[in-house]
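Hi all, long-time lurker, first post. I run a small reading group and we've been trying to get comfortable going from sequence to structure in the token notation. Rather than ask abstract questions, I figured I'd post a concrete chain and ask someone more experienced to write out its structure so we can walk through it together at our next meeting. Sequence below, copied exactly:
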Amino acid sequence: MKSMKTLLAAIAALAVIAQALPAEATDSLVRIWKAPIIFNDGVTENVLYVGGSSAGTEGYDPLEDGDAYPGGGMSAYFYHPEWGRSGVPGGTDYYMSDIRSLNLPQTWTLNVKDTLIGKDVAVRWNVDGAKEFMRCEGLELVFTDVATGVSVKIAGDTSYAYYNSSTDPMAFTVTASGGSTLPAPQNLTSKPGKGQVVLRWDGDIAVAGYRVYRDGTLASGQTLLIDGDGDGKVEFIDESAPKGRDKKDGSLASIYSVVSVGQNGCESAPAAIEVTR
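-- Answer (accepted) --
Happy to help. Here is the structure in token form:
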């Protein structure tokens, strides 16, 4: 009973810490943006999701790429026969989300089949899940009607409409361009020692400072790390690194991620290193 109370107290403490940290400073290991594209013909509404993740790939990612099973009045879907899932039990070539890597540019093809002919179909989107990438990394999304060639920049106050004249699938694309201009830390090295871990990397005067995460949790505190002595290097000494031992091989490994922080508070992609003690 005592151990359970101790565990619950620890979980509560972690929750308080997480709430106290800035949103962009809680976890840099998985970076993700996602934008729903919503089609509505006045009767039926379908939603498709485009996005990028540091854990994503250009192929099928089970945790992100959700299945779709077209049918009924309106069916919106991504079509990926090259992923080869239609031949497995429960598999399909049709998807409602396609979350890829963060590599840019990227282009998605969206297909919409609608049996409601002679009606306008409204298209809108929600960029809340992509705002930080738009602000910090210059992410730009463009929606294009393949049939007409009309393109619309996806933003919070824009939308589109098209006339559905056939039950044949209509094709649209979403293109993502841009990319981070904030440099990730360079030449990250580690030196594990007794009771501490020492990290060093090159300093860059173009950034406001740096943060260090250990296994996804902020380890360097709220004050940004800088090149204090002007030697071109930034150092972080982690004296709170776990001191236990793994029963399997007698060692303990942690993933350290170092990010640059710009003048606007935005973070760069991380430089990561595994430290075994």
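A couple of things your group might point at:
Residues 2-20 form the longest helix (19 residues).
The helical segments are 2-20, 131-137.
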